[in-house]
Amino acid sequence: MKASQFLISTLKEAPSDAEVVSHQLMMRGGFIKRLSAGIYNYMPMGLRVIRKIEAIIREEMVAAGAVELLMPVVQPAELWQESGRFQKYGPELLRLKDRHQRDFVIQPTSEEVITDIARQELRSYRALPKNFFHIQTKFRDERRPRFGVMRGREFTMKDAYSFDRDVEAAGRSYQQMFDAYTRIFGRMGLTFRAVAADNGSIGGVRSHEFQVIADTGEDAIVYCPTSGYAANIEMAEALAPTAPRAAPAADLVKTPTPGRSTCEDVAAFLGVPLHSTVKSIVLATDALDAAGAPVGTTIWLLLLRGDHSLNEIKVGKLEGLQGGFRFATSAEIEATFGCKPGYLGPIGIPPSVRIVADRSVAPMSDFVCGANDADFHYTGANWGRDVAEPTLVADIRNVVAGDPSPDVAGPLAMQRGIEVGHVFLLGTFYSQKMNATFLDEAGKPQLMQMGCYGIGVTRLLGAAIEQNHDERGMIWPRALAPFEVVICPIGFDRSDAVKSAATTLHDELAAAGIDVILDDRGERPGAMFADWELIGVPLRIVISDRGLRDGLVEVQGRRDAAATSQPAPNVAAFVKAALAA
Amino acid sequence: MKASQFLISTLKEAPSDAEVVSHQLMMRGGFIKRLSAGIYNYMPMGLRVIRKIEAIIREEMVAAGAVELLMPVVQPAELWQESGRFQKYGPELLRLKDRHQRDFVIQPTSEEVITDIARQELRSYRALPKNFFHIQTKFRDERRPRFGVMRGREFTMKDAYSFDRDVEAAGRSYQQMFDAYTRIFGRMGLTFRAVAADNGSIGGVRSHEFQVIADTGEDAIVYCPTSGYAANIEMAEALAPTAPRAAPAADLVKTPTPGRSTCEDVAAFLGVPLHSTVKSIVLATDALDAAGAPVGTTIWLLLLRGDHSLNEIKVGKLEGLQGGFRFATSAEIEATFGCKPGYLGPIGIPPSVRIVADRSVAPMSDFVCGANDADFHYTGANWGRDVAEPTLVADIRNVVAGDPSPDVAGPLAMQRGIEVGHVFLLGTFYSQKMNATFLDEAGKPQLMQMGCYGIGVTRLLGAAIEQNHDERGMIWPRALAPFEVVICPIGFDRSDAVKSAATTLHDELAAAGIDVILDDRGERPGAMFADWELIGVPLRIVISDRGLRDGLVEVQGRRDAAATSQPAPNVAAFVKAALAA
C-alpha cells in the first residue's frame, strides 16, 4: 500500500471531549471520526485494525466448531416481547416504529433471534450441539456515551450462541468458547485475564469475563498469583476471618466526635486504626401490593469495617434483598435512628431494623461505631455485651489486596482491566421463555441449554491502545497493527535512488505477504516520523541518500530506543525475522 | 468443511409468500430465513455466498484505488437536513429518535456522511482525487417488501463515493468505477449488461445501471447488437421517423365504435393496423401559490401511436411538466373534452389544452383517433387539415424491439434485467448543499465534483439465482457458490472404505484450496443428491463401495446431464481442472 492511495489524517491535538488516552490517540491518529455522541466513522486506518480483529475471531470461532450466520440489525419487537426483554430493557434499547407503526428494536444482542432460529432449525437431539455466531453492528443507547469506542452507542460485536441437550454438554460448549477466547486474545498479542464474573439478573450457571489488563481499566479484578484464581471484584468472595473474636477489653464509652462523620475522620480524631471502626450503611426495601404500589418499607443496617467498601452485587443476593433495594433517604434514617447519617450504629436501635454484619465485622471486639446521636461515637463496643450478636453475617464487601484468595491459596492481588469478552452459560432462561425445545431419543421435547459468548470488536481497539501506548502514540501488537511495516523515505520526491530503493523494498515486502505501507507523501522526516509513531506501526524502515551511499537502511521497532543500520540487501530478510520474533 | 459441522437445512416446499424463483429457492435451500417483512436472517449457506460477493467487490474496489472505511448505520438527522433529504425522502427513510428525542435515520445510503467526511478531510487539491467505499447494512422501509432479498428492507450494499477537483477528473473516476464494476460482475460469472440510465431528480451528469440479464427481471433494457449501445428503457431515445409524412388520402369520417375504448379494440373493429391509431393520454399540472395551494390546473393531451406505450420519465423532462404531473381525473377529462375517456382525440378540443405529439405521431396521416364523443372515433384524420399541426413534438414513448438504435447503428433488441449496480456522476448536488469545498492551487475554495457507486450485495444473491437455476434448484457460478465441490458418500456410516476415501479426498481438496464440503450426514442418496442439486454446488463427487471396487468415483457438474466415472487417484486433479475450466 502506498500512503498516497490511502488516507492518512493525523491531528496535533486531540479534541477536548476525548477523555481517555485511547480515544485521544484514535482521534489524533485518524482511526475514527465522530459522527454523533457515541457514533463514529471508522476511518481507513481504524478499519484495518477492525478487519484484523474480525479475522482472528472468525478463524478461531470456526476452528472451535461455531457456524457463522448473519442476523439483522433491525429486529421485530414480537420476539423481544416473548423473552420479556422488550418490557424490561431500559432506555438503552433503541426502539423504533416502521412506516406501518409496528415496533422494532435495533439489536444490542441477538438472543431472541437466535433462539427463534434454533427452535425452528434444531428440532432433534441429532442437531445438537450447535453454536452459531455473527459479527454485526449493535446499538446501545447509552445515557452518557464516552471513552470513544469503549462505551459508544453503535459498535461491532461478535456474539455466539450455543445450544445443547443438557447441562453437561452445555458445559463442554462453554469450555470450548473459553478456550477459543484464550486463543483469540493471545493471538492478538494482548495481556489479558479471564475472571469469574457475576451472572447478573439472568441467573445463569457460569460466567467469565475476559479482561485486557490496563491501569486505566474501568473494572477492578482480583487474582491470586499462587493459584491462578481470578475474578471480577463484584464476584470475588471475601472469606470470613479465621481468627476467633477477642474477649472485650474496653468499656463502652460514648465519646464526642464533633463533626467527624466518616470512619477515616473518626479514627484519626480518636487515634485508633481505621480497621477498628465500623461503618453503617442504611438500605431500604419496599413491599409492593399486587398493583405494584408500595405498602411497607423495611430498613436494613449494613455494617462494614471502616476500611472496607460495600459490594452491592453481593448484597443483592441476600434473602430479602434479592427483589431490589435502595439506599434509605435522610428522612427515613432520621425517623428510624433518631439521628442524621454519619453517627449511626447498631446499639440501641429499634428491633424492626434488620442488621447485616459483614464477615469481617462479626469477629470484631472493642470497636468504634456511631452512637445514634449527632457528634458522638461509641468506643469499646462489643457484640453480645453491648448489642445482640448479629443474626445475619454475610460477605457484603469488596475484597482488597492482601485478602486471602477464596481458594485459600495465598493473598489476593488487584489489577484493573477492560472487559473485551464475556462467556456466559445461560441455562434455560431464553429457551424456557421462548419454548425452544428439541426432541430427545424418546421423542420427548426438552428445553435447550444455552450459552452466549460476546466479544466487543470495536472496543478491542480502545483496550489494545490503553494497554499499549507511550507518550508518542499507539504501539500496536503485530497481529492488530493497521500496517506491520512502514517505509519512510527521506526525500522521496527529490532522490531517484531513494524512490527506487523504497519502491523496490515495498514491493518485495508486499510480495512476501507483509502488510507494508510506503509513505510516498513527501513529508518532512520529523512530521513523517511523528505520524507513524502516533499511528504505532511496529517496524519503521528509513531510507535516505546518506544511508544508501553506505549501502544501509535504518530499521527501528516501535518500542526500540534507537534504530539499527542494516545492509540494504538484507533488509527484507531482517524484517521478516524481526516480525516473526 | 463437513456437513455435520455446518447447518444444512432444506425444505421440500417454498413458503407461499415466496413469489419469485430466487426467493423460493433461497428459502428452500436454507440460504435465508424470514425474520419480518423484508428482513431476513442470512443463514450459514447464504452468508458464504455473501462473503464471496463481498470479497470480489472489495478486491476490485481496492485495485481501482478506492479506500475502504465504515460509516455508521444510525446517522444523525442534522446532516440529512443539510442535504435536504431528511425532508424530501419519503417514508422509505426509517426515522427514529434516541433517548434524548434527537432525530436519527437508519442509512439507506451515505452521501451526507461521506460528504461531511470529505469536507473535513480533503481540504486541498492535493488530497484529490479520492474514492471511499464501505460495505454496510442499509435499510429502506419499502411499502411492500417482496421478492425476498431483491426488494427487502434491510440489505447489504457496497457504496462508494468519489471526490474530484473538476468535471474531467470526475469523469475519470466514474470510468474507473465503470471498469471495476465490469470486472466485478465478470468475475462473478454473471451475464450482465451496463446500460445508460436516467439521472433522476438529482440531475447528475451521467449514470449507468449494471443489469444482470434474466427473463424474470423487473427492468426492461434495450441494446443494439451491432453497436453495443445499451440503455434502460426509461432512458433509451426513440428517434423520430425519417420517412416524411404521406399526403392525406382519406376523408375525415366520424365512425361509430360502440364500446371500443382501447386502440386495440378500435383497430380490430375497424380492420385497420394498430399503428394507424392514435392513443390519447390526459395529464394535469397544478400551479401552486407561494403557500403551496393549487391555484390553477393545466390539461395536457399526450398523443402516442396505438402500438406504443408512454414513458413517464421522458414526459417529466418536458418544459412545463418538470415540476411534476399527474393523470387527469375523469371529472377533469369530461369537463375539458365533453366526453368520457376512451374516445378522446385532438380534434375540436378547447385551445387551453396543451397537445404533445410523440415523434412517431407527428408524421402520421389518415390516422384513427377518438372523436371526443362517446362510442365514436374519427378515421382519416390528418394534421394541418383536420387539426392544427402539433406545436410540441417530443420523444415521450418507450422504444420497442426493432426501433432504430439511437446511435443509428441498427435495430434495437430488448432484454429484461435485474439492477445490481449503479454508477452515478453526481456533479455538485451534495457538495453545494453541504459546502464541500477544497482549496485549489490559488488557495480559492472550489466545490468538489462527486460520483456515487452502489452494488446491491444481498440483491446479487437473488439476481444470480434468477439467472442461473433449473427445475431442480440453483446453479451457482463457481466464484459465488457456497461450496465449489460436494462429496456425497453412499453409505458413509456403513462402509469404512467409503468413509476413508471420502475423508481423504475431502482433506486433499481442502488442502489444495478448494472450497469443498463432505456430506457426512448419512442421508439416503436420493435425498442427499436432491439437497445438493437444490443448493446448486457446481461439482458433485459420488463415492460408493461399488465404484471403489473398480477404483472409480463419479463426478458430475451441476449442469451436466450425466456423471462421468473417474479413476479415484486422479479425481483431485480432475476436479481442479474442471473448476478452472
From TrEMBL, chains A, B:
Mitochondrion is among the record's keywords: no
Catalytic activity: tRNA(Pro) + L-proline + ATP = L-prolyl-tRNA(Pro) + AMP + diphosphate
Keywords: Aminoacyl-tRNA synthetase, ATP-binding, Cytoplasm, Ligase, Nucleotide-binding, Protein biosynthesis
Main location: cytoplasm
Sequence ranges assigned to domain Aminoacyl-transfer RNA synthetases class-II family profile in this UniProt record: 33-477
UniProt GO BP: prolyl-tRNA aminoacylation
GO molecular function, one term: ATP binding
Entry-linked Gene3D superfamilies: Anticodon-binding domain, Bira Bifunctional Protein, Domain 2, YbaK/aminoacyl-tRNA synthetase-associated domain
GO cellular component terms attached to this protein's record: cytosol
Alphabetized InterPro entries for the sequence: aa-tRNA-synt_IIb, aa-tRNA-synth_II, aa-tRNA-synth_II/BPL/LPL, Anticodon-bd, Anticodon-bd_dom_sf, Pro-tRNA-ligase_IIa, Pro-tRNA-synth_IIa_bac-type, Pro-tRNA-Synthase_IIa_type1
Class of enzymatic activity (EC top level): ligase
HAMAP family, per the entry: Pro_tRNA_synth_type1
Domain-related comment: Consists of three domains: the N-terminal catalytic domain, the editing domain and the C-terminal anticodon-binding domain.
Function recorded in the entry: Catalyzes the attachment of proline to tRNA(Pro) in a two-step reaction: proline is first activated by ATP to form Pro-AMP and then transferred to the acceptor end of tRNA(Pro). As ProRS can inadvertently accommodate and process non-cognate amino acids such as alanine and cysteine, to avoid such errors it has two additional distinct editing activities against alanine. One activity is designated as 'pretransfer' editing and involves the tRNA(Pro)-independent hydrolysis of activated Ala-AMP.
Family according to the record: Belongs to the class-II aminoacyl-tRNA synthetase family. ProS type 1 subfamily.
Protein name according to UniProt: Proline--tRNA ligase
Gene source species: Piscinibacter koreensis
